[in-house]
Design goal:
Elements lengths: L29 E6 L10 H6 L4 E6 L4 H9 L6 E4 L9 E2 L2 H6 L14 E6 L2 H10 L8 E2 L20 H12 L5 H4 L1 H14 L1 H7 L4
Parallel strand pairs: 1-2, 1-5, 3-5, 3-6, 4-6
Bound molecules: zinc ion.
Length: about 210
């Protein structure tokens, strides 16, 4: 029998995460460009991010036309996106010092660098996001924000070196932009997903394979 999926959280109906989704509004709007391969992963986090915010759009594909993406952001009155992307080899304008300096303990809400008013995030494996960069060259024009040195709490999926999942990366940014932003709410469905996966595999397997990572 074919598996039925929840149309909201995209999980199998038996493990629907919708009851854990709590929506809020982030300080800046976001557009997530999700690689098509990512839709096959029951572990993907972008869809949970998309369901947990009121000012986010999620597009799935491999080729994303610039006018379409700009139009999606314009729906939130945003015109100058910063690209969230780890390797720094593409863009002319890069900001590497932004987040570490914030980590030093500012108590105030921050702004995005370069006068940007929104975020474009790429969702997929390292290979997938690299492919998106190669296929969508207009992204190279955007200023880039890299998140390095953060540790993922998502142990079940191998992350890029120093990498965090899409939803965690967004959470870091939103928290810096707005001290009131609730990680508790935003990551609630993501944490529930991980807890369910660990429960399913059993403590023994989890401890053997993942706990030391
Ligand atoms: Zn659901």
């Amino acid at each position: 029998m074919a598996r039925t999926y929840c149309s909201v959280c995209e999980r199998a109906i038996q493990i629907c995460l919708c009851e854990h989704i709590q929506q809020q509004t982030a300080a800046v709007p976001t557009l997530v460009l999700r690689h098509t391969d990512e839709t096959r992963h029951a572990k993907g986090s972008a869809i949970l991010a998309a369901r947990s915010l009121s000012n986010i759009r999620l597009l799935t594909g491999q080729l994303f036309a610039e006018p379409l993406c700009r139009y999606a952001l314009a729906q939130f009155n945003a015109r100058s996106p910063v690209l969230l992307y780890a390797p720094h080899s593409y863009a002319e304008h890069q900001e590497e010092s932004w987040l570490p300096s914030l980590l030093a303990g500012s108590k105030q809400d921050q702004r995005l660098p370069f006068g940007c008013d929104s975020v474009i995030a790429l969702d997929g494996t390292w290979r997938n996001t690299r492919e998106l960069m190669l296929k969508n060259t207009w992204l190279h024009k955007l200023p880039v924000l890299g998140l390095m040195g953060f540790k993922s709490e998502y142990v079940l999926r191998k992350q890029k070196p120093n990498g965090v999942s899409t939803i965690e990366a967004l959470d870091i940014i939103y928290r810096f932009l707005n001290k009131e932003f609730s990680t508790e709410k935003f990551l609630s469905s993501f944490r529930a997903m991980q807890a369910a996966q660990i429960a399913k595999m059993g403590d023994e397997i989890f401890l053997r394979h993942y706990a030391k990572r």
